[in-house]
Amino acid sequence: MEKERRLKELVTLLNKASKAYYQQDTEIMSNLEYDRLYDELVALEKETGIVLANSPTVNVGYEVLSELPKLQHPSPMLSLDKTKEVSVLADWLGSHEGVLSWKLDGLTVVLTYENGELLNAVTRGNGEVGEVITNNAKTFENLPRQIPFKGNLVIRGEAVIKYSDFNKMNDALAEAEEKYKNPRNLCSGSVRQLNNEITAKRHVNFFAFSMVADILTDAQIEEYGFDNTMTGRFDWLAKQGFDVVEHFSVTRDNIEERVMEFADRIAEHDIPSDGLVLSYNDIEYGKSLGTTAKFPRDSIAFKWADELAETTLIEVEWSPSRTGLINPVAIFEPVELEGTTVSRASLHNVSILRALRLGIGDRITVYKANMIIPQVAENLTGSDNLKLPARCPACEGDTTLQDENGVQVLYCKNPACPAKQIKGFSHFVSRNAMNIDGLSEASLEKFIDQGLIRSLPDLFHLDAHKEVIVNMEGFGEKSFDNLIASIDNARTVPMAKFIYSLGITGIGLANAKVIVSHFNGDFDNIINADVEELTEIDGIGEVLAKAFFDYFHDEDKKNLVDELLKEITFEKEEESGEQTLKDKVFVITGSVEKFANRDELKEYIEKLGGKVTGSVSKNTDYLINNDVTSNSSKNKKARELNIPILSEEDFLNLARG
Length: 657
What we know:
Layout: H1 2-23, H2 31-48, E1 70-72, E2 82-83, H3 86-93, E3 98-104, E4 107-114, E5 117-123, E6 129-131, H4 134-137, E7 153-161, H5 163-171, H6 183-191, H7 196-200, E8 204-211, H8 218-224, H9 230-239, E9 247-250, H10 255-265, E10 273-280, H11 283-288, E11 299-302, E12 309-320, E13 325-337, E14 340-346, H12 350-355, E15 363-369, E16 373-379, E17 399-404, E18 407-412, H13 422-429, H14 441-449, H15 466-470, H16 477-489, E19 492-493, H17 495-501, H18 509-518, H19 523-527, H20 531-535, H21 542-552, H22 555-565, E20 569-570, E21 585-588, H23 598-607, E22 611-613, E23 622-624, H24 633-640, E24 645-646, H25 648-655
Parallel strand pairs: 2-11, 19-20, 21-22, 21-23, 23-24
Antiparallel strand pairs: 1-6, 3-9, 3-10, 4-5, 4-7, 7-8, 10-11, 12-13, 12-15, 13-14, 13-18, 15-16, 17-18
Helix pairs in contact: 1-2, 17-18
């Protein structure tokens, strides 16, 4: 009875982990732990002869939950059997020729072409029925909308987001917790959007890995120009305009060498992958082998055997975020893994931390999931003596343990916690505000985690924490000196930029400039102005006026401003000279050459009395675009409305009067 009980326990646990990972973007166990438990379940099912209806060894996937239309696949999409041993691959291949390719880590998509046109695109779904994402697929960056072949074509492939694109998108985000978790999750969400405009911005690529060509006769195969082999079909698909998954022909004798070549490249490979796929090159032979209840017998997956290293847990660092979530991070004695030195790994949440029974000084094993992401694999000591922090490391406010979908997570209860104010800190130091270089959100988070920053005025006293900062990851003497120099430069700031830096609801830099100009730079008059006075200013309506008034009449905000004024002085505004652009409305598009950036051009226009807006309308006087003859949407709109399109040279001639 013990084995049967354990079998049921494993089914429940693995299904829960899969649902959390694929549907809730939450990890409740590591990949290594999942694989270990899965293998244990397979062994138990074989030993007992019991296979439950909801076993993950039977079910291919969960039911589709989105509102996208559904469509049944032409043939079931089965998972692949897997191994971590190269010797198993060699034995499986035997005397046959094989094709070894990347196992891409994105979202599997089935494409159907008819008469050379993309007819539909469907996600894998549960293997039998998928979601129709045809409109989204048409925005994939490398997917052909038309192909030379005019017959019926059904192919399978992986939609992925490259690491280079993923990193660029993350770098462009303003808030730390807005950062995307990984390329696979982002790709899955992007492909399944209801609005394909969002998909188009996510740089999704498609790589074909097989053809569903059972309907083709030998005559048709010959007519269409490929032989009945995997390599032949890959070559033919490439001629049709598809990017195909990178692949190599292998035999039993050279497969180990090929696997090692793939392994050497995984760290720098731009396309996410979680292993390799080995298939028989002879498609007819592979088909003749049939399938099991879950696996086809013509292919097998290879997952990287994780390189484990034993080390000692030094501490668990608790990292707060703007959402209030406090994440545990394992800090351990440095070890070499996959060619790099590793000393920290996310523990994700309290449930994982407790499952590992961690304690300071424990001997643990660590690995890199998919040879990239550091993870704790096992605790060899199991002292289980870690206490959850009762106080938030950023603000010393009370913490609370919460249950979210069966996962325990730790939160900070303090609504004024500086970690929750990361957006405000980031806005304050941004280029159009105080313009403090060297304070990215990542750096701000580190300073908050260490308790170096709790309010905005603390930014001006980071020089007192030199020893701590120069020893932080990503910092050193030079970067510290550059940061302090930038902070000192920010101590003299235009009044409008200071007002904008405070993050008053609705008050942009242009509004702030108008307000400063209206009151002739008298800061006392500005902060004491009532709503009626403010609404007299052009462009300041009652809503903005009330938000501005409320900010400077909030006691805490007034105290904050008073503290900041002890650190800064206002830059004297230069005489603007002749207002050659007075009341003229401009829109700027495209790259600039004679100014450092668009913001500098915008400031120049405003200095001469003009105004800059974001879109072309009947109220626009001029569109500035160095590519005057382009057919961009703004150029087209300007031509429709008979609005002059100026190059920078044309604009400067206009500005000089």
